């Protein structure tokens, strides 16, 4: 059985839980309290030297970090990964876009505002990151105005990766009012077969 | 023929140039001066709504953004991607690690210091990002103390992705003195078949 070390409110941790569920793979969830530093203990660093959740432990005990690497690994051989080479490449593009241009802004602002109580302390940085978060939403809006899912007509790993923090963006103060295609897409993703809401636990 | 829009000193732009070369694919390079805002013009935004280089245009005219998505696309069917599912997953892990935990620190500090003339303006942020850059080098040192390449015995796309900005980290003020396994690995990567130095052009 797989073991998933995660933090319940984390979108990054929801991603592999969602995919394990969608693939019908039973797994054990071990809650890691990142606010208490539980992802930086010597024991946890032995599992993931980068000190982050999620951390996936395979049935044979080997470990894998990085939520989008888990999506690619768990999604192999399924319809979540397009068989067309170009569509597959575009799916990769969105996975890296998510980690570079979306998560550091939308997820980080939400974390500071909602979970870490740092809305005041990080005030100026939140202003800057919020602008970049809206830029990411603009890129998504443009794509989702042209196709029902991020990579064409069918859901892929890209939709799971981007759903994670987009649907909770308002918790970080983002308004989705000007992003109607994104809002329709968020609804659409919840209807995809295998979808489970976030948080998976808790 | 492929067309690659890139900025010569950029490690992210070197990655797909290196892989096109390694796969024996001829391509056209179009230099984009990011300091002059050439990646944010209306014409360029029509190619990449996220306003970044590199941007790869396939022989049929379709486009692909995100350097590591290009590596995965161009590397398909080659020995640069491990055939073993777990090693392949670990390669994905490093590709996301590079974009989330390495590039925003090591590449960004180098860009500010060496290319954008912002060493003074960004002084405090450089201190913070330098610490995180060293943390990323520490994760690499640990892995490269255990195996010659990031994912085991053979070079993979992960080595290309991490070589890009690690080998120019000193240009951003990083010292590799305490990272002997990283230094040996940097030498090792230059001996891999198909390797070309950075910058590819210029």
Summarize the structure.
With 202 residues, chain A is of the alpha+beta class.
What does this structure look like?
2 copies of one chain form a homodimer. With 202 residues, chain A is α+β, with helices and mostly antiparallel strands. The first copy, chain A, has helices spanning 11-22, 42-47, 67-75, 85-115, 123-144, 157-166, 180-190; strands spanning 2-6, 27-31, 55-57, 63-65. In chain A, α1 (11-22) runs antiparallel to α6 and α5 (123-144) packs across α7 (180-190). The A-B interface holds A 49-50, 58, 62, 64-70, 72-73, 76, 85-86, 88-90, 92-93, 95-97, 99-101, 103-104, 138-139, 142-143 and B 49-50, 58, 62, 64-70, 72-73, 76, 85-86, 88-90, 92-93, 95-97, 99-101, 103-104, 138-139, 142-143.
Would you spell out the secondary-structure blueprint of this structure?
The structure is a homodimer of 202-residue chains.
Chain A: E1 2-6, H1 11-22, E2 27-31, H2 42-47, E3 55-57, E4 63-65, H3 67-75, H4 85-115, H5 123-144, H6 157-166, H7 180-190
Parallel strand pairs in A: 1-2
Antiparallel strand pairs in A: 1-3, 3-4
Helix pairs in contact in A: 1-3, 1-6, 4-5, 4-6, 5-7
- Oligomeric description of these chains: homodimer
Q: Give the number of DSSP strands of chain A.
A: 4
- Low-pLDDT segments, ≥5 res of chain A: none
**What composes the largest sheet of chain A?**
4 strands, mixed
Shape category of chain A: globular
Helical residues, percent of chain A: 40-55%
Provide the CATH topology of the largest domain in chain A: Glutathione S-transferase Yfyf (Class Pi), Chain A, domain 2
């Amino acid at each position: 059985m797989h073991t998933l070390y995660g933090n319940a409110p984390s979108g990054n941790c929801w991603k592999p839980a969602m995919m394990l569920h969608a693939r019908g793979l039973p797994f054990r969830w071990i809650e890691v309290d990142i606010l208490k530093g539980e992802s930086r203990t010597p024991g946890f660093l032995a599992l993931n030297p980068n000190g982050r959740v999620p951390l996936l432990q395979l049935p044979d005990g080997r470990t894998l970090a990085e939520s989008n690497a888990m999506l690619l690994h768990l999604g192999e051989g399924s319809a979540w990964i397009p068989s067309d080479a170009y569509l597959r490449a575009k799916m990769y593009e969105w996975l890296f876009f998510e980690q570079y241009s979306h998560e550091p802004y939308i997820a980080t602002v939400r974390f500071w505002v909602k979970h870490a109580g740092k809305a005041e302390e990080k005030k100026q940085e939140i202003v800057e990151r919020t602008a970049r978060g809206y830029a990411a939403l603009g890129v998504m809006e443009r794509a989702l105005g042209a196709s029902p899912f991020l990579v064409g007509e069918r859901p892929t790993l890209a939709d799971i990766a981007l759903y994670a923090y987009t649907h909770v963006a308002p918790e970080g103060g983002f308004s989705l009012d000007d992003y109607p295609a994104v809002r329709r897409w968020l609804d659409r993703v919840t209807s995809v077969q295998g979808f489970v809401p976030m948080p998976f636990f808790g």
